[in-house]
Each structure stands twice: as structure tokens, then as C-alpha cells.
């Protein structure tokens, strides 16, 4: 049965890298169909809304979306579209792999393979817990962490580790100082970890985690943590393996999932045909895993690796002189 995917082409370089990604997926001859939907500045210009109801309905109907970068206008009155989507569809698990690839600009040997699992709906990102006093002198932020939210994200990390053969989960926290919110997260994580004796579990304070990631990243396998810490750590991990151009992300809930390139819309290079499509292609690989097509996901990732190894039509950020389209065509040829 054909699976229909909601496709959001996004802003800036989004349409270019989405076209490249769909070209590669079409070359794989999978039983997938695309349903176009708008969000971001394109949607605001066409429909007067950053996130039109038609787009929301499409995601509800298909339950799976592939999304290129979106631009949220800077200023009051505009809420992050990504945060809105995550909360609207309760996409509580943000999964960000960072692995070494050949012929990329990395400070480390090709032995990094870390997955950050970030709680996606609680913590410091709740807009309804933020306020500024009338005189503009004081800003407050309310953080809310629940047992339910902590339990399900930690369980997701351990279940994922068991399913894909990972051996170690690191619980990252700041319970030594944030004894209420981070303390509850850590206490809950310990309860969940005790149910997975086959997987090693260790605990690490977030500041030490960042130092250890820079000094000895190979010690990490799966990291699970709260929203703000996970946002920072996952970008740090991307920097270890060559930057956000190689960083995919999955937002997963019980009744839906959105897969995306986590980098920005890069308006400075939009329309020039030089954007690297790898992040969105790797996100498509996560999507195939989620759809129960792990062999096809591996096939896609192997084609990307082979193209990087051959230095075949790599985009300028990867040291080549290829274009977004020619790079995608080189990957497609290997499929």
C-alpha cells in the first residue's frame, strides 16, 4: 500500500534541497507518494499564515511529513513554527544522529556515532511560561518537567538502543543545581534504566558532558536529556562531524512524525544551486527507518557515503565544485 508523505519545501534553500531529496527517493522506486503543503514565509505570503490549516490537516491525514528548513519572522507575535508543530502533534522525541562521514571537515577521526534523544515538548521551551515585566526590567521563564514526559523520553531512548543494537545510554542532567526539574528527570531516568539491565547506563552533568564530547566523543553512544540541554548538545555533536549540513533530525510521537534538516534556511545562498542536501537526505533515511524500511534506509545512507568517498560532485561546503542537483544525481546513480 502506498504511503503518502506530506512534503514541506520550506524557505530559502529549502525548495532546492527538497527537490534533490525527492529526486533521490524517486530513484529508489519506493511505494511512496508526495503531498505538497506550505509553511513558513512562503505560506505567509501565499496564505497569510505561517502554518495554514491545510498543512496541519495534511500532516494529520498522512501522519508523516518531510520538512525542509522554515523561516520564522523575528519579532513579537511570531512563535517558532517548529516548536508549534512539535507541541501540536505531541512529537515528544527529537532524535538527532551525528556520525562521521568521509571527506568532510571534521576535527576527529571517522569513529564518531552518537545519537542524541531530546525531550521535545517540555522544559524551557514553553512559551506560555515566559513573561517580561511592564517596566522591561525583569524577565521570567517557567520550566515544567513532568514524570510522564521524562519517563516516555527515557524509555524511548532505551527502546531505540535495544532495537538498533546500541550498548550504552548516557542520561544528561543538571540535578546538582536544578534539583526540582532536572532532579525529577534524573530520578525518573533511574527508574526506567533499571528496567533495561542489558544496556549500560551512566549519568553525566551537562557541563561535563559538553567538555567530554569535545575531548573524548567516542565514549558516547546514545544521549538522552531534556529539551534545552538536548538542543545545545545535538548541535555540539553536529559540529564534531562537520556541521549542520550533515545533521538530520526526527520528531516522533505516538501518532505522527516529522523528519527534517535541522539547519537553517540559509537565505544568503538560496537560489544559487550550491546547498548541500545531505541533512535532508539523511532525515529521509530516518523516515524510511520509521516506516519499517531499514534496508532501504541503509541503502540510501550507503549511497551517500559512497558519493562522499568518491568526491563525486560534492557541493562547495564539502570541498567540491558540484551543485545541489549534480550531487543528488551522483547519489541517485549509486542507487
Automatic annotation (TrEMBL):
Residues 4-331 form the Isopropylmalate dehydrogenase-like domain. It holds the Pfam family Iso_dh. SMART domains: Iso_dh. GO terms for molecular function: isocitrate dehydrogenase (NAD+) activity; magnesium ion binding; NAD binding. It comes from Solilutibacter silvestris. SUPFAM superfamilies: Isocitrate/Isopropylmalate dehydrogenase-like. This is Isocitrate/isopropylmalate dehydrogenase. GO terms for biological process: isocitrate metabolic process; tricarboxylic acid cycle. Belongs to the isocitrate and isopropylmalate dehydrogenases family. Keywords: Oxidoreductase. NCBIfam families: PRK08997.1. It comes from the Bacteria.
Amino acid at each position: 500500500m502506498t504511503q503518502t508523505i506530506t512534503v514541506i519545501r520550506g524557505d530559502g534553500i529549502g525548495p532546492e534541497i527538497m527537490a534533490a531529496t525527492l529526486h533521490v527517493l524517486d530513484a529508489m522506486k519506493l511505494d511512496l507518494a508526495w503531498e505538497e503543503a506550505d509553511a513558513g514565509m512562503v505560506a505567509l505570503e501565499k496564505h497569510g499564515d505561517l502554518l495554514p490549516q491545510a498543512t496541519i490537516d495534511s500532516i494529520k491525514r498522512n501522519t508523516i511529513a518531510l520538512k525542509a528548513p522554515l523561516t520564522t519572522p523575528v519579532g513579537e507575535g511570531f512563535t517558532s513554527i517548529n516548536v508549534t508543530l512539535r507541541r501540536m502533534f505531541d512529537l515528544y522525541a527529537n532524535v538527532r544522529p551525528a556520525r562521521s562521514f568521509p571527506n568532510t571537515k571534521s576535527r576527529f577521526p571517522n569513529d564518531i556515532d552518537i545519537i542524541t534523544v531530546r525531550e521535545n515538548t517540555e522544559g524551557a521551551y514553553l512559551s506560555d511560561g515566559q513573561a517580561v515585566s511592564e517596566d522591561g526590567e525583569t524577565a521570567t521563564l517557567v520550566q515544567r518537567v513532568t514524570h510522564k514526559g521524562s519517563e516516555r523520553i527515557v524509555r524511548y531512548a532505551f527502546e531505540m538502543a535495544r532495537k538498533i543494537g546500541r550498548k550504552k545510554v548516557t542520561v544528561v542532567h543538571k540535578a546538582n543545581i536544578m534539583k526540582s526539574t532536572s532532579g525529577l528527570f534524573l530520578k525518573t531516568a533511574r527508574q526506567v534504566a533499571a528496567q533495561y539491565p542489558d544496556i549500560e547506563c551512566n549519568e553525566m552533568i551537562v557541563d561535563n558532558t559538553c567538555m567530554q564530547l569535545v575531548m573524548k566523543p567516542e565514549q558516547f553512544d546514545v544521549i538522552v536529556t531534556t529539551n534545552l540541554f538536548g538542543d545545545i548538545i545535538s548541535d555540539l555533536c553536529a559540529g564534531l562531524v562537520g556541521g549542520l549540513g550533515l545533521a538530520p533530525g526526527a520528531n516522533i510521537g505516538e501518532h505522527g512524525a516529522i523528519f527534517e534538516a535541522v539547519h537553517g534556511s540559509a537565505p544568503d545562498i538560496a537560489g544559487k544551486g550550491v546547498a548541500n542536501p545531505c541533512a535532508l537526505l539523511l532525515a529521509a533515511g530516518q523516515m524510511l527507518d520509521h516506516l519499517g524500511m531499514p534496508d532501504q534506509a541503509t541503502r540510501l545512507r550507503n549511497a551517500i557515503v559512497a558519493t562522499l568517498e568518491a568526491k563525486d560532485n560534492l557541493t562547495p561546503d564539502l570541498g567540491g565544485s558540484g551543485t545541489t542537483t549534480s550531487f543528488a544525481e551522483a547519489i541517485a546513480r549509486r542507487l
